[in-house]
Amino acid sequence: MSRTTTGRGQRAPKGVMKRLIRTIFEFYPVLLPLTLGCILINAIVSSVPSIFMQNAISIVEDHYASGDWSSASGQIVKLLTILIIMYVISLIAGICYTQLMAIITQGSLAKLREKMFDHMQDLPIRYFDTHSHGDIMSYYTNDIDTLRQMISQSLPQMTISAVTLFSVFCIMMYYSIWLALVVVCGVVIMTLLARHISSHSSSLFLRQQINIARAEGYIEEMMNGQKVIKVFCHEDGAKAGFDEINDEIYRTARRANSYANILMPLLGNIGNVMYVIVALVGGTLLLSGAPNLSFSGMAFSISIVVPFLNMTKQFAGAIGQVSNQVNMVVMALAGTHRIFTLLDEEKETDEGYVTLVNAQENEKGELVECPQRTNIWAWKHPHHDGTVTYTRLQGDVRFFDVDFAYVPEKTVLHHISLYAKPGQKVAFVGSTGAGKTTITNLINRFYDIADGKIRYDGINIKKIKKADLRHSLGIVLQDTNLFTGTVMENIRYGNLDATDEECIGAARLAGADDFIRRLPEGYNTMLMGNGSNLSQGQRQLLAIARAAVADPPVMILDEATSSIDTHTEAIVQRGMDALMHGRTTFYIAHRLSTIQNADAIMVLDHGRIIERGTHEDLIKLHGTYYQLYTGALELD
Q1: What is the pLDDT of residues 90-129, one digit of tens each?
Q2: Number of CB atoms found within 10 A of residue 14's CB
Q3: Which of 301, 358, 371, 427 is 20–30 Å from 77 (CA)?
Q4: What is the pLDDT of residue 63?
């Protein structure tokens, strides 16, 4: 199984949060500012009680000496009325922003999942060959879930805390600059401490996310291989492998959370110390009669010190709320970084401009494009001078001195030259790793060649759009992939425009019609879990039927009958012969008996064609093929 790196020493880049907010704004350009406005109202109102407390104490102080409590009570009632109105506004704003955040959160996640899935459809096969399926699934589950928690909880809470901090600090400066400076000193210490701890935890949280993805990839691999594990009694080895990955998750998560969880008690105690210091400084200034430095111009009094203590507690609490969210934010940013890394993966490039169109012959016998469906397909080839030529799709495939390497330093195909004329059957024989499947991967441009040329009906395949090229090819792999749906829907997957009759005809051609009609609901039988309610041979027959309904001029059979028993193979082989009739076929042989009637057999060894010819020619040659056929040499 291919695995991604563990990401030791990595940390989410600083621009992730900015990019996330920009992305959410692109999704909801109206709702996001509206939600932010509601959050601001809610946060600002939370700072109001300190002002009302100061005013209430001032009223009591002013009327204490005179004893005119009726006037004081009237003013206090007025203050309370205004306070109640503001709290009602805050309540409405709070309800609005929570409802809007639910829409934004779930909507953003849905759109991100859609973007990821759409982007993955455009990624090259190379990406899926180098990333485990479990790792890819982790983007849609674990990473998205951490992002959900941050958008729905952490971001609103941190915004509220930030606005509260700013508004409370402004009120502090208005009432007393001296006491505000005491709070500033405490905030500086808190900020430096939080920054130091989060810098250590961020890289650990990213490693945690990557390790969780590794665990999901390992579990997916073990679930797919349960039968092999039990047959070879490898349960203990599987457990040991999982324990190793799980222990790594535990170590990184423990260290990351140790850093993050220590922050709250530290900041809480600093807040308590700051509260005591403000009380001492305020009391000292109040008793000494020292002049007050403030924007309000008010002298030191109990009406300033008491609300200031409340604001200090509120200030420390807001910082504590932020620190409470650090754990979740850092973890979510690690997951978000992984999501953006996926979205930044380079898409499969396609420089092709030759397309596949329906065509018909005009009065002069020339091919012209036809908007209706016809039985004639042609390559539409536009030229620089504005002219367009049409070449009938026939299935003539030729390799000219082709070299290829999956990685630059290791060439796997060397000087491959071959041709397959329309209707010919070309078979590939060779040991594992000889390059058989690689050649077929080059025909459909899952990978691009390093050197040489491949021509399809005389056209360089690099000039043909990949979608059109692949539309002209049918492929049956050794490992079948069926999808959740009916048998009919799985066959129609090869040609979405096919009628039921065409699908049934393809099933008959493949030899699948008989067993399908014996299923509980025939062609309407639902398949689940990659066709787990069918045998391997039956799944393979459906895959062959799916290729048959596409009716392509070129067919690629990658050991298509290797997973089928001898009795079923005889049935399939008859269908395969009918399927290959009149089509150019590239056949990767598992059993030499299935390719004796091939027009050409290519024997490969370490990426080179060492023998070529018909079955009779190669037998007379007494070379590698002869040894394979007589059993003197076996394929590995």
Answers
A1: 889 889 988 999 999 999 999 999 999 999 888 988 888 8
A2: 9
A3: 301
A4: 58
**Structural contact between residues 22 and 275, judged by C-beta atoms closer than 8 angstroms:** no
Residue located via tokens 């859609």: 114
Overall size of the chain counted in residues: 636
pLDDT at 137 (0 to 100) = 85
The Cα 351–Cα 466 span in angstroms is 9
Pick the closest to residue 333 from 431, 403, 262, 260 (CA basis): 260
pLDDT value of position 370: 84
CB 469 within 8 A of CB 445: yes
Q: Strands 584-588 and 554-558, how do they pair?
A: parallel
Q: Which of 371, 481, 429 is nearest to 587 (CA)?
A: 429
Report the C-alpha gap between 111 and 339 in whole angstroms: 12
Q: Name residue 26's amino acid.
A: E
The confidence score (pLDDT) of residue 89 equals: 86
Tell me: the pLDDT tens digits for 180-215? 888 888 888 877 877 777 667 767 777 887 888 788
CB 166 within 8 A of CB 40: no
Asked whether the beta carbons of 457 and 392 are under 8 A apart, the reply is yes
For the chain, give the longest Cα–Cα distance: 127
Give ∠ CA 602-608-612 in degrees, rounded to 5.
Answer: 25
Tokens representing 476 are 């049956």
- 620: CB partners within 8 A, 6+ apart: none
207 exposed, middle or buried (CB, 10 Å; 0-12, 13-18, 19+)?
buried
Residue 48 Cα distances to 76, 191, 192, 314, angstroms: 15, 25, 29, 11
Mean of the per-residue pLDDT values of the chain: 83
Res 82 pLDDT > 60: yes
- Distance (Å) of CA 3 to CA 127, 134, 203, 262, 607: 11, 10, 20, 33, 26
Q: What angle do CA 377, 379, 380 make, to 5 degrees?
A: 120
SS (H, E, C) 450-492: CEEEEEECCEEHHHECHHHHHHCEEEECCCCCCCCEEHHHHHH
Task: Give the distance, in angstroms, between the CA of residue 371 and the centroid of all CA atoms in the same chain.
Answer: 38
Task: Specify whether the CB–CB gap between 554 and 472 falls below 8 A.
Answer: yes
- Tens of pLDDT, residues 98-107: 899 999 999 9
Closest CA to 156 of 92, 98, 107: 98
Helix (H, G, I), strand (E, B) or coil at 570: helix
Alpha-carbon gap, residue 31 to 35, rounded angstroms: 6
pTM of the model: 0.74
For 450, the token pair is 């390093």
Neighbours of 607 (CB within 10 A): 21
Q: In this structure, how many other beta carbons lie within 10 angstroms of the beta carbon of residue 529?
A: 8
Distances (CA, A) of 239 to 125, 229, 245, 246, 526: 31, 11, 10, 10, 34
Token duo for residue 600: 């050409």
Of 356, 576, 353, residue with least CA distance to 472? 356
- Please name every residue paired with 485 in a beta bridge, in sequence order, or none if there are none: 527
User: How far apart, in whole angstroms, are the C-alpha atoms of residue 630 and residue 624?
Assistant: 10
pLDDT tier for residue 66 given thresholds of 50, 70 and 90: low
Average pLDDT for 615-633: 87
